[in-house]
Specification:
heterodimer, A: about 800 residues, alpha/beta, Phosphorylase Kinase, domain 1, Rossmann fold, Dimethylsulfoxide Reductase, domain 2, 4 domains, 7-stranded mixed sheet, 26 helices, 31 strands, B: about 110 residues, alpha+beta, Alpha-Beta Plaits, 3-stranded antiparallel sheet, two-stranded antiparallel ribbon, 4 helices, binds iron/sulfur cluster
């Protein structure tokens, strides 16, 4: 008789690869995982489950799983490894990393992770215990999610996401919930499921309940086909579109006047001479520079907005929203000022629908109709995808989009865009807007963090290093050398690294590399020591990103694989004998403490929603005083308001109002290059079969999407003599890569879309699994981040295509 | 037995997103090797006037679909129905499902072998 069990747990990263959240049932027979099902009783997925999670049996027991620690015996990149014990692996790592610390300081070790993992906290714990602040997300411009979070923290003090009732018991049926009348789906395709800690198919639930769709996408996606308005945008011009929608909404008076007056910084004055905020200290010798000046509507005299007290002085002030004012400065001179609202209007004014049509290629009428539909739908929500991060001017773009949901009164209302914080504020490590229990030992430890001084957001919201600067510094060794790399479930040569040949040179240059992963990858072949990690089914963990608070429970074990946390905990304790926690459960207890539960209690419950009136649960928290530390109504920004004019951006020496700027490599910004490279190259469309560079070795999944594909419009394909299924070379000034042509009307004639993350796990004899032959990142440069260190031009490069004449010819 | 008393699958293809969960759910349930499944998801790009197009996905039950009699006998939903990310597959008696076709457009009713 077999011992059969069904164990409930939560999906997250290693396995489906995602940001997690599904409740799953793991069927276990005699300790062996035999089947997975979605948990019908779980509020997140209600039984549903994606292809990648459903393929877990092929993943967990795959013959190529790394199951023992390895050490390199040949030359770097030669791919000769030998099995060693965990003890030898830990001893070697400890000794080599301590050598690096003694020679060059702890900051010369970089700790790198892949995207969306549950290992962020554990990698920080290890880095901080070792003494290095340099935790890296290896994508150029850190261009995935954290730029959007940082941008919203800058403008509105908190991040927000669309509301699908995920905070409420009973979800859509909860009496407080309202189905959005309209949703803008901005650069997001659903078939690959779950972005940004949301279950993608919640949007389908809402569409069935009547939500109308406005789709912003250059490709004919599922949403584009089913939308009321498809805004087929030229990639990289999203900010112009957002500004154009603001133009229509403001000029037609479709905005929420009460919100504007009560909750935005509209009345504060901006100087016309410097273009900067008029500060209290500009007009009063003892004035506080953090306070701002407004004009009282009745007295027409100046009044002060005290950001500490969140009050006007005098208290009875009713500030003017509009107007030109001459204000006397301390030296007796006069300066002309306008309100932040007028300054905002001036920045929006050039973006008439006709002007926006010229920039974006979206017909003016269609854009205006979409803006009206969005503004007149109550409630309405916006869901944006990672293309928002994948452009250098990401913060001005987010600023413009945020103004859309704020000015239409859709912020933190049921069915709108609601503020989101880790459930119960149970946070493991420092994220934008959250502190976490895993901390740097002291502020000094943070000083050498690469990019911190240069880029404002990296000193306020993003506690990682700036990736492009790290890569530079590996070669320049300035201001200090980088000697070692801890590379945990991260594959820069195949997935996350732009200009991967440069990353290859970087890996060759480093003295010591540790790789932690589940399968051998091209990047791992550069490691000196390799440690075998566990899938989510083989480990314990906590998830509070965003709701519900959930536990991950161990359902099985595979050979000698250990969870990322077990690995990092062992080493953290070796490097820091004073580490706060003695056991992993002690650490979990600390993380979930704000919920009032222990980890064991959470495991017994499975998941929990924050109670009513908790700051991590909607709605209308800016009215209730649940967002700010001081308990006053308003937002967690420097002014306490939703900032149409950004205080922080001004402090960082950056433009404080939103705008569109043409990205670095488009036919508009580089007509010279367009002669040779006439097509727009966009990359990174999602595949339901894969999470980035993962899953090419899982038979059920690979069969769904067997080859690296480039989508080409039939007219363009015909012009180049390319037939569907033929191999083509995609090339530009950076390099070339080969793809199988998918000739389809999904893409417009002026753009091709190339799949990303390709390598060939089956080509084991090739030292790098042939990872550069079909790697689209070969065509994308590093170091094109925006002025604030964020964003990268991943969705809008330039290229030409041609039919491959001989097999493998390039 | 007439087809009408048989079991079938009603598919609301308007909302099928082409996520392949049904296809892999079936592969897991029956241990099909890669490339086989009781249901295959098709991508259909229809040409419309003025150079426009429309994208649809359609899960098509294959010769391998047994309608999960093993599961349904135990009162469970077929594996593809249980896991469908968009909740667009309904299992039931063909006769009953046929009535539901009148509820909304863009649906198909399959009666696999
Ligand atoms: S990708 Fe989505 S459906 Fe799949 S396991 Fe992750 S959260 Fe669940
Ligand atoms: S009903 Fe069962 S056998 Fe048929 S396709 Fe669905 S899962 Fe496969
Ligand atoms: S699981 Fe559902 S939504 Fe996904 S492809 Fe199958 S039928 Fe379509």
């Amino acid at each position: 008789m077999k011992n059969k069990q069904i164990i409930k747990t939560t999906s997250w990263s290693a396995g489906p690869g995602c940001h997690g959240g599904c409740g799953v049932l793991a069927h276990i027979e005699d300790g062996r995982f035999v089947k997975i099902e979605g948990d019908p009783d779980h509020p997140w997925n209600q039984g549903r489950l994606c292809a990648r999670a459903l393929a877990m049996t092929q993943y967990v027991y795959h013959e190529d799983r790394l199951t023992r620690p390895l050490k390199r015996v040949g030359k770097r990149g030669e791919a000769h490894f030998e099995e060693i014990t965990w003890e030898e692996a830990f001893d070697t790592i400890e000794a080599r990393m301590n050598e690096i610390k003694a020679e060059s300081g702890p900051e010369s070790m970089i700790f790198s992770m892949g995207t969306g993992r549950d290992i962020g906290p554990w990698i920080c714990m290890l880095a901080y215990a070792f003494g290095s602040p340099n935790v890296m997300f290896a994508l150029s411009g850190n261009a995935c999610y954290s730029p959007r979070i940082a941008a919203l923290d800058t403008i509105q003090g908190d991040f927000c996401v669309f509301d699908a009732g995920q905070w409420l018991e009973g979800r859509y049926d909860h009496p407080e919930y309202q189905v959005p009348e309209c949703m803008i789906i901005w650069g997001y395709n659903i078939s690959a499921t779950c972005p940004d800690n949301l279950f993608g198919h919640w949007i389908i639930d809402l569409m069935k309940k009547g939500t109308k769709i406005i789709c912003v996408d250059p490709r004919l996606s599922f949403f584009a086909s089913r939308s009321k308005h498809w805004l087929q945008i030229r990639p990289g011009t999203d900010a112009a579109l957002a500004m154009g929608m603001l133009y229509v909404i403001i000029n037609e008076g479709l905005y929420d006047h009460d919100f504007l007056e009560t909750y935005t910084d509209a009345p504060r004055l901006v100087r016309k001479d410097t273009g900067q905020l008029l500060r209290h200290s500009d007009v009063d010798p003892v004035g506080n520079p953090e306070n701002f000046v407004v004009i009282d509507r009745q007295t027409e005299k100046t009044a002060i907005w005290d950001t500490g007290d969140q009050e006007f002085f005098p208290a009875a002030t009713i500030p003017a929203l509009s107007g030109n004012f001459n204000i006397e400065l301390l030296d007796g001179s006069c300066v002309e000022c306008i309100t932040a609202w007028d300054a905002f209007l001036e920045s929006v004014a050039p973006y008439t629908p006709e002007a926006v049509e010229k920039i974006t290629m979206i017909p003016a009428r269609e854009m205006a109709l979409a803006a009206r539909l969005y503004a007149s739908s109550k409630p309405a929500a916006i869901h944006w995808g990672v293309p928002i991060d994948m452009t250098p001017e990401i913060t001005p773009l987010c600023h413009a989009i945020a103004a859309l949901w704020a000015l239409t009164g859709n912020l933190d209302v049921p069915g709108g865009n609601v503020f989101t914080r880790p459930a119960f504020n149970a946070v493991a490590y420092a994220l934008p807007g959250a502190e976490g229990v895993i901390k740097l030992k002291n502020q000094d430890q943070d000083k050498p963090r690469i990019g911190r001084e240069e880029y404002g957001p990296f000193d306020h919201f993003i506690w990682r290093c700036q990736t492009d600067k790290v890569l530079d510094q590996i070669f320049s060794e300035d201001p200090y050398p980088v000697k070692g790399l801890w590379m945990q479930t991260c594959n820069p040569l195949s997935g996350i690294g732009l200009d991967p040949e440069l990353w290859q040179k970087a890996l060759e240059k480093l003295d010591f590399i540790v790789g932690v992963d589940l399968f051998m990858t091209p990047s791992l072949r550069y490691a000196d020591i390799i440690l075998p990690a566990a899938t989510f089914l083989e480990k314990e963990g906590v998830r509070s990103w965003w709701v519900p608070l959930q536990s991950i429970n161990e359902t099985c074990r595979v050979d000698q694989c250990r969870s990322d946390l077990e690995i990092n905990f062992e080493l953290a304790r070796r490097f820091d004998p004073d580490l706060k926690w003695e056991t992993i459960h002690g650490l979990f207890d600390d993380i979930v403490r704000p919920s009032g539960m222990s980890f064991k209690e959470l495991q017994a419950r499975g998941w929990a929603l924050p109670p009513e009136n908790h700051p991590s649960r909607p709605y209308r928290r800016h009215e209730k005083g649940l967002l700010r530390q001081d308990g006053k109504p308003g937002f967690a920004t420097p002014s306490g308001k939703f900032e149409l004019y950004s205080t922080l951006r001004e402090n960082w020496g950056l433009p404080a109002l939103p705008y569109h700027k043409e990205p670095p490599f488009t036919p508009v910004s580089r007509p010279d290059l367009a002669k040779d490279y006439p097509l727009i190259l966009s990359t990174g469309r999602r595949s339901p079969a894969f999470f980035h560079s993962e899953h090419r070795n899982i038979p059920w999944l690979r069969q769904l999407d067997p080859d690296p594909v480039v989508e080409i419009h039939p007219e363009t394909a015909a012009r180049h003599g390319i037939g569907s299924g033929e191999w083509v070379v995609v090339e530009n000034w950076m390099g070339h890569a080969r793809f199988k042509a998918k000739v389809t009307k999904i893409v417009p004639p002026w753009m091709v879309m190339a799949a990303h993350g390709w390598w060939f796990p089956e080509k084991k004899d090739d030292p790098l699994f042939d990872t550069f032959s079909s790697n689209i990142n070969v065509l994308i440069p590093m170091n094109e981040q925006g002025d604030d260190g964020l964003g990268a031009p991943i969705k809008h490069l330039m290229c030409r295509i041609r039919k491959e004449t001989q097999k493998g010819e390039q | 037995m007439s087809v009408l008393s048989n079991q079938g699958l009603l598919i609301d293809y308007e909302y099928c997103t082409g996520c392949f969960a049904c296809q892999i759910a079936c592969a897991q349930e029956y241990g099909w090797e890669a490339g086989m499944s009781g249901i295959d998801v098709m991508e259909i790009v229809q040409d419309l006037p003025k150079g426009k197009a429309y994208l649809s996905f359609l899960p098509f039950p294959t010769e391998l679909c047994s309608l999960c009699s093993r599961r349904t006998k135990k009162g469970k939903k077929p594996a593809c129905v249980h896991h469908c990310m968009a909740n667009v597959i309904t299992h039931g008696r063909v006769e009953e499902l046929a009535h539901r076709l009148a509820d909304k457009p863009r649906m198909v009713l399959w009666s696999p072998k």
